[in-house]
Amino acid sequence: MDLFSRSWAALRTAVADLPADSFQRPSGCTGWLVRDLVCHLIIDAQDVLITLVTPADTAPTVDAAGYWSVEDRLPTGEDPLDALTVRLAAAYEDPHLLTFHLDDVGSAAGRAAELADPGLRVRTQGMVLTVGDYLAAYVLEWTLHHLDLIAHLPHAADPPAEGLARSRAMLEQIAGSAFPASLTDKDVLLVGTGRRAPTQAERNELGELAARVPFVLG
Fold it and tell me: In sequence order, what DSSP letters do the residues of 42-69 get, joined into one string?
């Protein structure tokens, strides 16, 4: 739960530190500008709040890794929900309104996570899992979207190192295979989830795993 809080705080700080003109730049999410990604983070924060107050009285059906599904194709930005996010982001017009809303809802989500009982069972998207596993799954969400945020912003800060390491471990659990130790945590996440193509040298290092990437998480 501490890692959820640190990863989420780092991501919100990275957004808060962005110059206004950064919001019109591309993000690492196909078809989304930075402003669209920030709007998605607001929706994510709302989902966290909703899930933490949706208790379940049945046994968990998934753990943190099981929360994630692996899709068979990379996103194109044309999904109806993705397109809705773009329209919502455009409606904000002033980037300050986006950052204000993210700070407002995001701070509430962070406080709710800190107050939640990690052993409590909650329901979301037809799944039941403990709060601890749910928040652990979101470390991967925050870390990947932090990488998406800074994809074309070379001076922005990276996600916390411990969040990168934990996210790599979760991706390896999802993949059922370890990535080569020669690849950094950041490169494993970028290549492993299809955020960039592997170089030839990386493909050689990946060996048989090269034929299985990317693992498109949904």
Answer: HHHHHHHHHHHT-B--S--S--TGGG--
Cβ contacts of 21-25, under 8 Å, gap ≥ 24: 22/153, 23/95, 23/98, 25/152, 25/153
Region of residue 141 (left: phi > 0; alpha: psi -120 to 50; beta: else): alpha
Measured distance between the N- and C-terminal CA atoms of the chain, rounded to whole angstroms: 22
Structure tokens, 70:
């692996």
Helix, strand or coil, per DSSP, at residue 128 = strand
Alpha-carbon distance of 218 to 117, in angstroms, equals 26
In tens, the pLDDT along 124-165 reads: 999 999 999 999 999 999 999 999 999 999 889 999 999 999
The helix (run of H) or strand (run of E) holding residue 121 is: strand 121-124
Question: CB atoms < 10 A from the CB of 149, how many?
Answer: 24
CA 82, 67, 54 angle in degrees (round to 5)? 85
Statement: the pTM of the whole predicted model exceeds 0.90: yes
Q: CA-to-CA distance for 164 and 147, rounded, in angstroms?
A: 10
Q: Is 98 left (phi over 0), alpha (psi -120 to 50) or beta?
A: alpha
Question: Helix (H, G, I), strand (E, B), or coil: what is residue 181?
Answer: coil
